[in-house]
Give the backbone structure.
Amino acid sequence: MHKTDHLKLDGKILQLFVTVHDTGSISATAELFSMNQSSVSHAMDKLRTIVGDPLFVKAGRGIAPTPRADALYLQAKSILSAMEIFVASPEYDPASDHLPFVIFATDYEVQTVVSPLMERMQLLAPGVDVRIRQTPSSGALAESLRRDEADLAISPSLHSGESDLKQQTLYEDVDVCYFDASCREAPCTLEQYQLATHVNVVLGSTRNREIDDLLRRQETTRRVGIECSTFASVATLVCGSGYIATLPARLSDNLFSVLDSCPPPVELAPFRIVQTWHERHTDSSRHQWFRRLVKSVSEAAPSNPDSTQ
C-alpha cells in the first residue's frame, strides 16, 4: 500500500462500508443512501485497494465480512464518531435535534428511568426519538456498545473492567419479596420462603440471583417454578396466586404496585443501576446532554420504597 493511500479515505466511503457490514448487502446499502448499486460497489472497490483486503466475500446468496473487515468496522465507527464531534457545534441544541437516541434497557429500567426521561424529552427535545432495545446479556453488552448498537445502556453495574466503557451510577435498589396478600401470607421466615413457589426473571443466560447464593450458604434452596423474560410478566403471574418473587423494591412504585412486599428471610446487599457508554461518546456535547438528563431524572425519582408495606 502506498504511503499516502490513507489520504484517499473520506467519511462517505467509511459510512458506506459500515452500512454494508451492518446490512450484509450492497443493494440494501444503495437503497438506504438513494444510490445505485454500482456506486456503492465502486466505493467498496476503492476501499479494498486502500486497505489491501477483499473486505466482503460471497456467502450463499449474500456476502460476509472478512476478519479484516470485522476489525476495520469498529475503527470506522470510531472515526465516524470523531468526525461528527469535529464538525459539531460546541453548544448542543436539543430543541433542534432530530436524530434518535438508542438505549439498552429492560422493562425494569424503562419504568424507573426511561418513562420519566420521556416526559422530559418531550419538553426539551420534541424532535428526538428514543429507541429502546432489550439489554444484551452481560457478556455481550460491552461488545454491543463497541459496535455502536446503542448510545448507552441502563443496567446493573458491570464488573468486567472494560477499559473503553464508562459508567455512572444512577441510583441504588435492593430486592424485596413480593406476594399477593389476598392469596397468601407474607413469607417472612426462611421455611416459608423455601416452601413457596417462586417466579424468577431470566435475562439472557442469567438465572441465579444473589438470593440463591445466600441460600446455598445456608444449605438450602428455593423452588423456581416459573421463569419469565420480563418483570411485567412476573407481576401478572404473582397477582392472584400464591407465588412469590424476589425483585427490586422500586418496582412497587409501578409494575408491582398492586402487590404487597416484605424483606426476604436473608439480608441482601443493595445493587447499583448505572448508565454505561463507550468512551467514543464521552466528549460529544450531544451525548453529554443526554447523559446529564438521564442522571437528572434518576435523581428526581423516588428513593427506594419501604419494603415493609
Summary: Confidence is low (pLDDT under 50) at residues 304-309. Residues 140 and 221 are 29 Å apart (CA to CA).
